[in-house]
């Protein structure tokens, strides 16, 4: 700690004054643990008695508290004694030296999260993840503490390869797998590699995730939107496109339409890749959450020579975990290792999480919760918005509710926000304007908020209509 001990008087009194000042101005926050007296005495070059006397004085004055086995810490609301000298936040001094409550904070409207893009963060398996972190830390070797392998830690690549082959039908070994921070980062790396290899454009789904268009453009590639229908990307339209070096798509559960790429479209895409030598980029979005049947296997598993598979834990665990992966054909694999992977401890923790079966258990529990929540949203929509139709298969963390002609989805989004509901108009994801609708996310929507959220959407639509 940086403490000013200048001035006159006994050293223990000057130390107590310096600590008191640090507490008042916020440099020492509530519940902050102070150094043991022996440590602080050595740091300040004084006797231990000086520190213990200063601590004792501040404990008596109410600034500090001591707990057996926990040391000395700053007391909550320390300094908010009755004097103007120690007036704390949230209180206002009076002429008598007493304090009175300050003004109440401004009330904020409750926000119901019906936007897509997040899993249920309440479901994050904190205890099991903490166990995985501890196991990873306990098993660290000196080699693990050096510079990171740009491909990712071999232990995680081996565990991920086994998982993707077992659960997603991918054709993958550890050598073909590259660890990255997220699916978006993976797609950005692929776009940079395409540009370096001479590609000038990529095809993307329309509607589709806007970040894909942004990272492709940032890599210097022209972005060519290709329409999506109930069978997925219109692969037949690729034949008329020139200079397209890659196609980025979400075959398992298209975002946002909810369509699954049909077998016929899969064959058309692979024919395009054979004819042109182009790269198919498979974003395995929402693949773990299919509710009516087992999810279709990856496109990469059928054609590892033509497809780069991209995935992450952002929609299954949390985007804060920061683990993603790419499985690429041999020609492309070295080109994707142009950036540092996530921290080694995080990689090893996820490997431990996978190997212990914790990831599988978490996904089973999450699937059940999301299926029930989706059913509840669909029931509420049918009851309150009978004219709105729901599209897409029973899967994932979102659905699309069409609004029909004459209704402006952007206006509904704005009115819903005023009513405390965060929802997104499908226009946000469209390059070419199409039928108006709302992309309703239920991943991070609390179960008890379903009815209120849909009721507010109904009210917002009523105001627009």
From TrEMBL:
Residues 9-77 form the HTH gntR-type domain. It comes from the Bacteria. Residues 70-108 are annotated as: Disordered. One of its GO terms (molecular function) is pyridoxal phosphate binding. The keyword S-adenosyl-L-methionine does not apply. In the C-terminal section; belongs to the class-I pyridoxal-phosphate-dependent aminotransferase family. SUPFAM superfamilies: PLP-dependent transferases (SSF53383), Winged helix' DNA-binding domain (SSF46785). The keyword Translocase does not apply. CDD domains: AAT_like (cd00609), WHTH_GntR (cd07377). Residues 92-108 have a biased composition (Low complexity). It holds the Pfam family GntR. Keywords: Aminotransferase, DNA-binding, Pyridoxal phosphate, Transcription, Transcription regulation, Transferase. This is PLP-dependent aminotransferase family protein. InterPro entries: Aminotransferase_I/II_large, HTH_trans_reg/aminotransferase, PyrdxlP-dep_Trfase, PyrdxlP-dep_Trfase_major, Tscrpt_reg_HTH_GntR, WH-like_DNA-bd_sf, WH_DNA-bd_sf. Gene3D superfamilies: Type I PLP-dependent aspartate aminotransferase-like (Major domain), Winged helix-like DNA-binding domain superfamily/Winged helix DNA-binding domain.
């Amino acid at each position: 700690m940086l403490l000013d001990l200048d001035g006159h008087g006994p050293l223990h009194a000057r130390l107590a004054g310096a600590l008191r000042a640090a507490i008042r101005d916020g440099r020492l926050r509530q519940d902050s643990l102070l150094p043991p007296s022996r440590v602080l005495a050595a740091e300040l070059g004084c006797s231990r008695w000086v520190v213990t006397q200063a601590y004792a004085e501040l404990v008596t004055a109410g600034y500090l508290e001591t707990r057996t086995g926990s040391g000395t810490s700053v007391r909550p609301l320390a300094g908010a004694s009755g004097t103007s000298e120690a007036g704390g936040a949230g209180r206002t001094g009076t002429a008598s030296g007493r304090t009175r409550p300050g003004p109440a904070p401004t009330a904020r409207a409750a926000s119901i999260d019906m936007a897509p893009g997040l899993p249920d963060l309440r479901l994050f398996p904190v205890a099991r993840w903490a166990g995985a972190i501890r196991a990873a830390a306990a098993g660290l070797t000196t080699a693990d503490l050096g510079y990171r392998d740009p491909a990712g830690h071999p232990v995680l690549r081996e565990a991920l390869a086994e998982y993707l082959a077992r659960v997603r039908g991918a054709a993958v070994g550890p050598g073909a797998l590259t660890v990255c921070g997220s699916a978006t980062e993976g797609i950005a790396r692929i776009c940079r590699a395409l540009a370096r290899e001479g590609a000038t454009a990529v095809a993307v789904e329309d509607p589709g995730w806007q970040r894909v268009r942004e990272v492709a453009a940032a890599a210097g590639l022209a972005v060519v939107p290709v329409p999506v229908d109930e069978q997925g990307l219109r692969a037949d339209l690729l034949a008329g496109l020139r200079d397209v070096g890659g196609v980025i798509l979400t075959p398992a559960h298209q975002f946002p339409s909810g369509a699954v790429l049909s077998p016929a479209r899969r064959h058309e895409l692979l024919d395009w890749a054979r004819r042109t030598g182009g790269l198919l980029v498979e974003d395995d979005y929402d693949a773990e959450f299919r509710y009516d049947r087992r999810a279709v296997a990856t496109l990469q598993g059928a054609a590892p020579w033509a497809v780069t598979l991209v995935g992450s834990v952002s929609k299954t665990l949390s985007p804060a975990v920061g683990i993603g992966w790419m499985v690429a054909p041999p020609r492309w694999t070295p080109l994707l290792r142009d950036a540092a992977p996530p921290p080694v401890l995080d990689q090893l923790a996820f490997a431990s999480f996978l190997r212990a079966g914790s990831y599988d258990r978490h996904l089973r529990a999450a699937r059940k919760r999301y299926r029930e929540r989706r059913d509840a949203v669909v029931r509420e929509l049918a009851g309150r918005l009978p004219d709105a139709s729901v599209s897409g298969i029973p899967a994932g963390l979102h659905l699309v509710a069409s609004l029909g002609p004459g209704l402006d989805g952007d206006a509904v989004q704005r009115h819903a926000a005023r009513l405390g509901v965060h929802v997104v108009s499908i226009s946000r994801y469209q390059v070419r304007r199409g039928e108006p609708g709302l992309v309703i996310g239920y991943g991070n929507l609390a179960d008890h908020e379903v009815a209120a959220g849909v009721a507010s959407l109904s009210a917002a639509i009523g105001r627009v209509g």
